[in-house]
Amino acid sequence: MTPDLDLDTLRLLVAVSETGSLSAAAARRGISQPAASARVREFESRWRLAVVHRSARGSRMTTDGEAVVSWARGVLHEVDTVRASLEALTTRRRAGVVVAASLTVAESLVPRWLGELHVRRPEVQPVLRVVNSETVADTVRSGQADIGFIESAVLPDGLAHRQVGQDRLVVVVAPQHAWARRRAALSTTELRAARWVLRESGSGTRSTFDAALGQQPDVALEATSTAALAGATAAGVGPGVVSEMSVRAELELGRLVAVPTELDLARPLTCVWRGEERLHEAAGDLLAIAVEAASTGGPGAEVPRTAP
Asked: What is the pLDDT of residue 277?
């Protein structure tokens, strides 16, 4: 980061967007309201932009401000990922398992699985690495992770695998987009003509959509995080494609609208590990937990593991 763009100010602007109040955002960030106002004024002066509109009813982001917030969410996600990874590298673990997971699985499912793992094995101190599906496979294959979870229909070479669930992608648009009023499913021809906000190449979301569309899409913006993708779509950059479970709140609040299409956007969620090795107990338990969570309540299927 350059000296004239600090992370604390970006986090403050995101908080203003989410709370609709400069004072509430200041309280969330643990600073005074005058200090928060000064930071916003300094940011606006430095970049010659009006990003926050202040009124007696509260504070709201301007159009430029919402664009800044959508970019900031992506930057902050990457920074937080780096920080978490660095902390994991410097933390000595008594016993543990290194888990690599693609973004959708890591955000929506893995935390619950790890919570159950903690109940069963409180001594285990797992490390979670959040990367795209292609990098998950590379990380597991190289031995940098014990187990991985991907959201791609294309299974990686050289790894054992087991499906642990299913996900569905949705096409989403801003409420003011012309597609938001569509009732009939969009045709493949209409979808191919659009300019998209999409995840990066190598992600399970992107590979699933590319395969369903049957050609390389025209990309208006490429995002490496779900938050950045949803923010850019809500700001009107273009229609986006994202996991339905990742944007459930935005859909319920009306910030995004799901649009029906004729594409098949279902995809499996898959666990992968090095097939030449048996899963050690913590990794085996995590796979069993994932299988159980995807079932209808019956016992988890038997999984490979090292004997005690």
From this structure: 76
